[in-house]
Amino acid sequence: MRVVIAEDAVLLRAGVIRLLADEDIETVAAVDNGDDLLVAVKEHRPDLAIVDVRMPPTFTDEGLRAALGAREAVPGLPVLVLSQYVEESYAVELLSGGAGGVGYLLKERVADVGDFLDAVKRVAGGGTAIDPDVIAQLMARGRKNPLDALTARESEVLGLMAQGLSNTAIANSLVVSHGAVEKHIGNIFSKLGLEASSVEHRRVRAVLTYLGR
């Protein structure tokens, strides 16, 4: 089996490559962003693409969008998505594509080597491997206030956004790094289902959602 991996966390990427190698699964390319994933998929035509959801530059949903693009470029390409969270905005589109194998696992499942390798082989063979927590959350979408999905820190960041603070000001207020604030905001956009728009700014839409709670 030949695999392409898209994962920006160096240690996790190296660990997955090692796990696959122990099963005689060849990693033909390992990249850290969505653009390079598309290039690698087109070049190598792998048996499976293992894709992280959040990668540079915004760490929101680049991986899922790249996965969808990869399946368009190589119809039927099996894709196994790894994420710390359930990214609803594109997950439904990916999982309902109906062509080739597809999987969506939370990263904590990778710790169970047997389950992870079973998912890899199943998806590469055209099957599915969907994390139970992913299924539960997707089934529950639309039945609750989207703000309920935010963590306490994400709610705090959104509250400061509503106050008109910049990312730098939020970072100073919470005594965290600028990068951490950007990641929290990316999580907020994703959990509120706010896709990029040339008409409405996602930041404004997030604040309006917060104020309308």
Automatic annotation (TrEMBL):
UniProt entry keywords in alphabetical sequence: DNA-binding, Phosphoprotein, Transcription, Transcription regulation
rRNA-binding in keyword set: no
InterPro entries: CheY-like_superfamily, NreC/VraR/RcsB-like_REC, Sig_transdc_resp-reg_C-effctor, Sig_transdc_resp-reg_receiver, Tscrpt_reg_LuxR_C, WalR-like
Keyword set includes Cytoplasm: no
Modified residues (4-aspartylphosphate): D52
SUPFAM superfamilies: C-terminal effector domain of the bipartite response regulators (SSF46894), CheY-like (SSF52172)
Example GO molecular function: DNA binding
The Response regulatory domain, residue ranges: 2-122
UniProt-listed GO biological process terms: phosphorelay signal transduction system; regulation of DNA-templated transcription
Domain HTH luxR-type: 143-213
Superkingdom of this protein's organism: Bacteria
Protein name listed in UniProt: Two-component system response regulator
